[in-house]
UniProtKB/TrEMBL annotation, chain A:
It holds the Pfam family IBH1_N. Keywords: Nucleus, Transcription, Transcription regulation. PANTHER family: TRANSCRIPTION FACTOR IBH1, TRANSCRIPTION FACTOR IBH1-LIKE 1. Residues 18-78 form the IBH1-like N-terminal domain. CDD domains: bHLH_AtIBH1_like. InterPro entries: bHLH_AtIBH1-like, IBH1-like, IBH1_N. This is IBH1-like N-terminal domain-containing protein.
From TrEMBL, chain B:
It comes from Brassica carinata (Ethiopian mustard). Residues 1-11 have a biased composition (Basic and acidic residues). Residues 1-41, 195-293, 436-459 are annotated as: Disordered. PROSITE patterns: BHLH. One of its GO terms (cellular component) is nucleus. This is BHLH domain-containing protein. Its main location: nucleus. It is found in: Nucleus. Residues 12-25, 198-214, 240-252, 269-287, 449-459 have a biased composition (Polar residues). InterPro entries: bHLH_dom, bHLH_ZIP_TF, HLH_DNA-bd_sf.
Amino acid sequence: MASANKPINTDVPEKDVFALHFLQSLSNLRRQNTFNSPEKTNDRVKKIKKVAYVSMARAAGGTNRLWSRALLRRAAKENNKVVRFPRRKKRVTCLRRRRSNRRDPVEEEEAERLRNLVPGGGGMEISKLMEETAHYIKCLSMQVKVMQCLVDGLAPK
Amino acid sequence: MDVSEKDELRNGDTTVNYDDSSANNPHPDWRVSGSNPVSAPIDSYPTENLISSSQMMETLWYDPTNVQAVGYGGFNGGGNASSSSNSFRGNIDRSLEMGWNLPNLLPPKGNGMFLPNASSFLPPSMAQFPADSGFIERAARFSLFSGGSFSDMMNQQQQPLGNPESIGLFLQGQCPSNEVNVGVAHNDTSAAMKETNKQNVPGSGNVSEDTQSSGGNGQKGGETSSKGFDSKKRKRNRQNSEADQSQRPQQSEEGDNNGGGDKKRIDEQSPNSQGNKTNSGKQQGKQASDPKDGYIHAQARGQATNSHSLAERVRREKISERMKFLQDLVRLQQVMLDEIINYVQSLQRQVEFLSMKLATVNPQMDFNLEGLLAKDALQLRAGTSSATPFPPNMPMVYPPLPHGFMQQTLSCMGRTEANGWEGDLQNVIQINYGAGDVPPDSPAATDASLPSSNMKVEP
């Protein structure tokens, strides 16, 4: 891209979408497992966490975002499922290395940490990585809000 | 005669020398005076790396009529400014006029008289004037001289160069754009002066001065007309990078002392400038890091990686833009990526914590929306993609559910709403039910039902 004048589009759906997806996943989870004994709380926690991320990925970007795609793929791998994403024109460019050197040792150090945090950040340029991070942050915060509300709502009085 | 004059100048015997040599030699002592009585007019110029001498020269160009006297006064070492300046003024005016008129009058060889002492300051520039009438024409061509052409200067001694850049021209040669070289240039010029005196080679000394002043290129140009072009070069350098200048002296070395060399240099300069302008950004970055070494190399590097540097710059702009966006998003004050990383980490930790809480709060993981969601999900997936946000109108398609059940769920959601949510969850429920007007039950009625009991959903 010659110019970076395109405004960054990091729109995130409303909270409803997140809530819906989350609850959907939770209900699915509940259907899958009957009551879990308390000893397996950790497992439950993990499941819920995974569900949270997956639902967030689905709600937020679906497959339009690199991080959501990576997240979903990772989750599917854990379930031994194969996830197929519809081929898009702007395929993940991790396979294609642009000629412009994207490695700047000064920035790369910090970008490395970011890459570890953001799912799917390994194959991205720094600029793309930052865009994904912005969207990821938005979605994360939204998801956190949803979960918080849910917890508050379900907390025993 | 020239040599002797130079020696006198070097010694600091300014007054005499000025009187004698003003006509012929620009005064090397212009450098000498540390104080700059001309500072006032000089300050008006945002010229960089001004040394006193360069400042004086600058003022000279700036306002030949007025500054000259002051500048020359400064040459006296700060003393006798007024008196000497007056006397100098006449001399300077004369010399200036001569200098400017020289191209028309003096043969190219006349450059030698001027150049030797043109210690890369105005004197050199002035000396350059006699270089060529062609030079003057070319000089007039340059946009930087838009303030006034040399011809104007020659004729009227107005403020032909109100443009600081034009002044910067000379400064460039003497004071390379790199701040690093300010002191160096000063020393270099003085050294160059001596060299020129020794060499007494027309133009060669000047070239050497320029090259040295430009940061120790170590080049000793051997061309008389190089000075004139050096000014142009300086201008270019000012625009682009010093690498150009370094190259030009190199080129000038090979060229002739006269117009032939000039023309060649000009031709070379034009492509260089074009190529360099795109690289200016990058090369400026290089300049700071390559005060002395990079002159020769930066040019080649700049041209070779023209597209790369451009792409790099674009890339950096993109990155900075995204960074700013992230900053606004995360409400950070600094440009530290670390804070962004911390924020992301904290968010992820929050998700984990909340999921843990969810798991403990709701051991059965029963959710009242289970049934309702099941149906919604079906229609959701059929109708829309997950990426699209919910339109408020969607709920119409949802099948109705028992009102009581609805109330329970709504109450649960209503509780959450009461807890501080903006009612989005409730909206979700409402949306799902297609009726945005289902009021939540009073919390009291559903308190007891909140725990798992009402969570059971019969699809």
